[in-house]
Design brief:
The protein has helices at 3-18, 20-47, 53-81, 89-114, 122-140, 146-169, 177-204. With 205 residues, the chain is mainly alpha-helical. Helix 2 packs antiparallel against helix 3 (53-81), helix 2 (20-47) runs antiparallel to helix 7 (177-204) and helix 5 runs parallel beside helix 7. It is globular.
Amino acid sequence: MNSDWAAQQLHTIRTLMERSALYRRALAPVMTLTGVLGLAAGVLGWTTHLGEPVAFVLFWGGTAAVTAVLVSLLIRRQAFKAAEPFWSPPMRRVAQAVALPALAAVVLSLYWCLGQPEPESVYELLLLWLLLYGLAVNAAGFFMRRGIRLFGGLMALVGLGLGGYFLRAGPPPAGAAAHLWMGALFGLPHLAYGIYLYFTENKSS
């Protein structure tokens, strides 16, 4: 191993851990925005009766893309106010951590759509997204305090637990109701975590 490269990596990791409190504070608006968008999309999908499996995937794929763009703009604004580069070492680390799970979610979703799925099977995809997202968040927060890693781990565990429950009791009713599950499983936890971060940061500042 090149000693200069190793020293550079250690310096980057030490800097990231020293500034983890700052990143945690910046996470509160990101989580709140993601939660609000997730809840709004869940209600919108339910009220517009998008019950077909492919429409479900396209709708939530579009929601994820819009959320990613808005969150990126929010982080860019935060970086601009702090006079820091947008594509900073933390951003690169986060992008590296989430890239593979995100790619897996896209590819598996495409395979799932090509298989002409039954409406009830949208819950299989929902649980897969939950598991991959939880693992990605857990990996992306390796340099921060344990809150974000616990959040990602809980998302993944909820996916596994619900999978076991659905195997035992059967999936919930198919159709537009699946959008409410998406809003509850993705939107509510993010909004709750964002509110928690706001309150805890006010106490510790």
